Amino acid sequence: MLAARTIPMVLFLLFGGVIADRFPRTLVLQLSNVLSALTQGVVAFLVITGQAELWMLVVLEAANGTVWAISFPAMSGMLPQLVRRDQLQSANALLSLSRGGLTVLGPTIGALLVVTVGAGWALAVDALTWAVASLLLMPVRIPPRRASTEKSSTLSDLREGWSLFVGTTWLWVVVLSFSVLNAIHSGAWFTLGPALAKKTIGEQGWGLVLSAESVGLLLMTLVLLRVRLRRPLLVGMLGCSLMGIPMIVLGVQPHLLTLVLLTVVAGAGIEVFSMAWNLAMQENIEDRMLSRAYSYDALGSFVAMPVGQLVYGPLGEAFGFRDVLLWSGIGYVAVALLTLSSRSVRRLERAAPVPAAAAATTEV
Fold first, then answer.
1. How many CB atoms lie within 10 A of CB 51?
2. Which fold has domain 154-348?
3. Which residue from 134, 201, 228, 313 has the highest number of Cβ atoms inside 10 Å of its Cβ?
4. Residues 91/221, Cβ–Cβ less than 8 Å
5. Rounded to an integer, what distance in angstroms lies between the CA atom of residue 294 and that of residue 281?
């Protein structure tokens, strides 16, 4: 079922970018939310009535993955149409704050629904939230984009997106870097990490470590509401490199308190990169191609994650979990810092000048 959702997500991401750049993004999101509500509603009905079979769920999850592939580029590209450029960092921080808070609350609410009313009704509530999300988008009005005077095919739009991708050095360098970093993160941290933690700091301890990462994300989001990033990718890649340190510690000498503290810092670093990347994309890619740029970014970044999950199990068995985690952490830091050898990454600055009213904010 997980594969049935993931494979269409990867296959249709680029087409999702084309759709989001051609049509009004609010409309794309509304339709995507309605389709998500329908598919999850059908899953809920099948589970509640006891008619669910594996092939049915596989088909419905494949549909869900396809819908996500279309909605993600639209959502990613819509923010610059909603706020002024000088408000992009604050707007991204508020979005991140809401996402982070719901990431903490969502699993708890979901688990509570499962144990009280059952899995089927929990899925029904999930379907309802998608429907509500579609309704909440109805009053959203964004300025219409300038219509293109030339007719273009899907293939030509994909080629134009590819030309933008390979022609923007900082874009392809960071995406290439994250294809490696995400493979390490998903393989070393999320595959070998729980197995090693079970034998050392325990399952509850590993849960605390993962929660600490979320705490770091939320705390840094509050900081970024006030602190302005001047060279976003420089600061972002430095922050991202911090994620390798907990891997090293887990491989060398797992200690719960040390890991929790380091993971808080690492989570904060990941949030700095997330903010930096969104600002780099939203301020330096023209609006008519922004969703396609995000789709190429997501494809390059996500495609390596299942590779890491598949490879790291055999690596851990062959060379030992601790040694693999240690060298993976070192490699993670090295790849993140090596990305800064690209001048276009290191020197990229904010595209818009700071308004006078915001001149008093701190810069890093």
1. 9
2. Growth Hormone; Chain: A; (1.20.1250)
3. 201
4. no
5. 8
